[in-house]
Amino acid sequence: MTGEQDRRDEALVSQYEAYPYPERDPRDETKRLLIGSPSHLREIDYWVFGAKRSRSLPLRVLIAGCGTGDAAIMLGTHMARAGREGEIVALDRSEKALSIARARAGMRGLENIRFVQGSLTNIEADPGLFDYIDCCGVLHHLPDPDAALAGLERILAPGGGMGLMVYAPYGRTGVYMLQDALARLAPMSESPRDRLDVARRVMRHLPATAWLRANGNFGDHLSGGDAGLYDLLLNPRDRAYDVPALFGLLDRAGLETTCLMEPARYDPALLLPDPRLRTRIEELDYRSRAALAEELAGNMATHVVYVVRRGEAPERADPMAADAVPVMREIPGSELVKQMTPDNRLRFAFGTLEVLLPLPGQTRGLLPLIDGVRTVRELGEAMESRSVAAKRFPALWQEIFATLEGVNRVLLASPA
Prior knowledge:
The chain is of the alpha/beta class. It folds into 2 domains: 240 residues, Rossmann fold, CATH 3.40.50.150; 87 residues, no CATH class. The protein has 17 helices and 11 strands. The chain has a 7-stranded mixed sheet, sandwiched between helices. A two-stranded antiparallel ribbon has the order 8-11. α5 links the parallel β4 and β5. α3 packs parallel to α4 and α7 packs across α10. The relative contact order is 0.13. The model has no long low-confidence stretch (mean pLDDT 96). InterPro entries: Methyltransf_25, SAM-dependent_MTases_sf.
């Protein structure tokens, strides 16, 4: 590590001890569970294991850079509620952040998380293998993301997968300009407290023309407290990956995607309804289409992706199989129906971009029936009692599932 890298690394250590990120109060665990991607248990079951890995198998998890614990607490709670066996190893080099994560786990009575202080760039010699690894919001702060990701790949169990999140450039327009300005006014050689004071003063007087003021794709500087403002604008090492750069990072680590989250967000055809343009889109390969969607939308501030080793992508369970069990990822079907317009389109927000997804009218009757227990066969029988002919149901279900899988709202449950 060079002298410059050493200084940046020391500044990172100081930052997260002074302002553990994200800013969390353990007492809030009595009020709510923070939900997100990656590392939602139903997403892991579906997007990593193809809804084919038995729920009875223990799940060994590494949270590589757990911070104040959002992913560890969410996944630990999901596993505990579902009675899923396994262990979550929550790794972070900030003792202050770990103390907050431990307190949050204590408030929930979670006993399936083991907290370990250490760096993912220097993981213990033989930590064992992990079925699932979460590395969310970490790689883009490291001196050598390629080496770190390669290190995680080496401790991934056969057939396992990872959930990653990295920053994306276009949706963070304005951030890097302010980072440069603050690097001049508040160099990283100063204490975190002094640097934060300068950042607050700059934000109070930020010109109306500053691009950050026009960017509504994130809110750390507005509602993330001191830790959020510091991490957004004062972090000493911060890089962003557009879609081609993200795929390059994965390629070099010998990984391939099973899902860019949400899949439909990376479909440019949703943004360009013109038939001639859609014809051109169809001629592009998957990566080019995803890159085009990012370039057109302009509001992607992060990329969330599930990955496995190259050549190990699971054959996903068949949603048309009679014994397949659909499951709502989080929002109950009856609530999702309320988000549909009178002309049977689902309002869906990709961040600050809202799209309208057309669905069959029968979706209103079907979604409340999806309870994680009924099979596709049983759903068809229930819909037949509501005047949907048996021979018509397969095409209807295929359209509904394809649309709602694309926005990560309906998935398939793993076998017991």
